[in-house]
Amino acid sequence: MDMGLKDLRVLVTAGASGIGAAVARAFHAEGARVHVCDIDADALAAIGREIPGLSTSLCDVSDRRAVASLMEETFARLGGLDCLVNNAGITHLPAPMEEVTEADFDRVMAVNMKSVYLTARAFVPGMKEVGKGAILNVASTAGVSPRPRLNWYHASKGWLITATKAMAVELAPSGVRVNAINPVAGETPLLKSFMGEDTPEIRAKFLATIPLGRFSTPEDMGNAACFLCSDEASMITGVAMEVDGGRCI
What we know:
Order of helices and strands: EHEHEHEHEHEHHHE
Helix content: 40-55%
Number of helices: 8
Strand content: 5-15%
Distance between the termini: 28 Å
Number of strands: 7
Radius of gyration: 17 Å
Structural class: alpha/beta
Shape: globular
Strand order of the largest sheet: 3-2-1-4-5-6-7
Largest sheet: 7 strands, parallel
């Protein structure tokens, strides 16, 4: 299906690997013009070589000045922005909640929460000015159905789901839609962190909780992202769509 994304101007944060890279590839395949930022210079260089016409920026989206520079560079490269994908996210290692270090807690909240605030400050005014736009936040099934030992990561994703709904309500009169996707754990660099260790036994135990019987793939998320940011979803806002094979049922 042609989702009408040709020449859509898209920014994907943390877009050099995993879900972010798949989102960037999916938008590019639909004809969008894509700018990707990441903190990994080598990964940025690699995806820049892979995707024709992709532009990239090295950026820590938890840093206010870095996001201000990202806005300037994005507008210089794309001439504006139609769609913002807030994909940046990290976790702490599985541990009892009281044993997670303050430094790990602060980093999770800065990347998973503060970055969304900072990108909103940077990019929402331009969307409001032109009276249209789409924002997609990459949340998690962890924000819907939390499990032990990843407490503060789960809390940050629950915040992001609520933030998505609050943003959607506020920005709807300005013509800006805001949605989220809730991935289940899948084949991304964070999988081992979520599970604690990656063994066949642990994988089998986790897969038993997913009715469709497989891990998600980054491509699953890229397809969902393109749909929610397209005009095919023009009546959808404030949704946190579970892309989880039925795990949250």
